[in-house]
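Attaching the record inline, Q. Sequence:
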Amino acid sequence: MAVTLAKPRTAEAGVPRRWSVGHASPPLSVAEQIAEQLSDSIIEGHFEPGQRLAEQEIGASFGVSRGPIREAMRILEKEGLVELKRRRGAHVSNLSLAEINDIFEIRSVLLGLAARQTCQRNDPRVVAELVAGAKRISALAKSNADAGEYVNSTYSLNLFLAESSGNEPLRAMIFSLARRTLRYAMLGLSTAERRLQSARNWRRLARAIEKCQPLEAEAAARRLVDESREKAVKLLRRQAPKGADQTPSSL
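Structure, as predicted:
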């Protein structure tokens, strides 16, 4: 599948990117900009799981040599979005259903812990932002907004929750796994019904943190991840060839 990619431009400091792991970022190198745009394309499904990423084609699209492309691939490999195979080049990572289940289960535990610790910190600024965020998400779920816009908003709120825990190792793990599984989370939120269900869970989570109920906050956060996992895996299994368990690339 050929994808046309725009030539990178230097990002301005303080300007958030669509699927970046922070609210704002400093200017990026050329390789980092290429990695960012490629990761967006992978997350949004423009490249198939297992698809080979041809360095020459991508380099021509960006108007750069192979050096920055190879550096970008190494960045994406660290993020779990690309696999570098000896003598076969770079391929979009291709998780099996078992791996998707396992990673989502870990994410569920980690986000639940972040919610509990955020609740225990009881920061009024954080509480206000989470309540406002839950309201924005509910409005999106009830509107005709596309799935991408909804998922982008929930993704940002997930990262804010992780940051608000005050636990740096926990934040780093949540950021890494959230980005790696985002394309599957998008699948899990692909229907209007699922987005409404998700919005209800975000309201429960915000309400629990507002009332300083750490166990309820943890349960609501885990439910957010678990229900996305269940929907994504169900859809992947339904689309998989008969007798295969497998990997999303065969879908």
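Residues 30-92 form a domain with the Arc Repressor Mutant, subunit A fold (CATH 1.10.10.10). The chain is about 65% helix and 5% strand.

More tomorrow.
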